[in-house]
Structure prediction request, 389 residues.
Amino acid sequence: MRRVETVIVGGGPAGAATACGLAYLGREVVLVERAHGPHHKVCGEFLSIETQSHLHRLGIKPAALGAVEIDRITVCFSTREITTVLPFQALSLSRYRLDDALLQRAVSLGAQIKRGVSVRSVRTAGDGWTVSCDDAETLHGRKLVLATGKWGLRGPSDARDSSLVGLKMHLRVPSDVRDALAGRVKLALLDRSYAGLQLVEDGIANLCLLLPRAVVSRVGRDWQATSDYLAAAAPKLAERLIGAKPLWNKAIAVVCPTRGHLHHEDEPAVYRVGDRLAHIPPFTGDGIAIALGSAALAVEFIREDRAATLYLAAARQLTGKAIRLASIVSDLAVTRAGSRLLLSAAAHAPELIRDIVQRTRLPSLSAITSGDGTVRTNPSEGASPAHDV
Ligand SMILES: Cc1cc2nc3c(=O)[nH]c(=O)nc-3n(C[C@H](O)[C@H](O)[C@H](O)COP(=O)(O)OP(=O)(O)OC[C@H]3O[C@@H](n4cnc5c(N)ncnc54)[C@H](O)[C@@H]3O)c2cc1C
Prediction:
């Protein structure tokens, strides 16, 4: 059995950023990721301003990876649409590039990464945790960070609610569509669901949908069926798909909870980061910021050897408000009456969309932690940014 200080399970943005932070501090860390190499993930691939500032702190430059700028949002419902300027300049970059860049950064900082290896089980043992991997290695970590994304080690059987399915397709679009999409994310409100379209690197467009499971079972995942469905359900969005060529045979898919939620307490507690800590409805496009923000917080607490229960309390404070509001807006947006109401209100006051985007962001880490990593009781006092890595 190999004994290490910290074992991280999962190498998405949350796990990789935790590995970067700990390795930068000179801590011994082993991260286990089941995928063999770079891979596509279901995601709108929208990088909010908070995500960008975390990436900057970690030494990742999205522009150098090909990210494109987004400064407007067009919300459409049926044949109506409203465009407004975002409250910040967002970026768009495929998860294929982003996630790999974060893992490579962790390696360059000294983290050990086991790629292509799944963790089968974890259990408490003595002063830490025993982590059994499917390559026959067993690790003993004094600290354990769970960063396995939406599902735990048992996969979707851990689901609280899995009524929605996220789908993603990358498309090669004609130049007039590319020009029309430049600088904007287009969000279509559908019946009980929504779809987003935006450019990512190399002139590729990313179409990401969140649909009820029953709709996906009926429509299927091949491109013709998906585009036919959108032509009927979201004609304004479908206009931008004319002449688009799918880069894969089928959309990739992931089962997804409908509402936001925060983790339930474990006994004994572990450092949960990213989606394993908290799920924010994808509508807001800030899940990666939660992944990176919770990772930075976990690094602070592990550095100070503070208990996972204290970390979880701080993490709840960091994410709770944005998740609650995002859940309310997302619940509203996915009903026919609610999306009509939202769009009518936004037609009279387009700043409403900006306001919603603004209010579903995370507070900065410095708003909730003191220099010693303790949780502030009064978030308005002073500030201490997480370390630059
Ligand atoms: C439809 C949709 C659209 C979204 N759009 C956006 C968006 O535009 N912008 C945004 O910021 N967020 C968006 N999100 C949210 C975002 O994708 C997630 O919040 C983010 O991926 C969370 O990162 P993570 O590291 O916690 O999890 P993940 O990225 O899911 O990473 C978890 C990793 O753990 C690995 N793993 C799992 N189990 C094991 C195991 N047993 N052993 C080893 N490895 C394991 C997996 O292979 C995976 O790489 C969207 C989500 C959905 C569903």
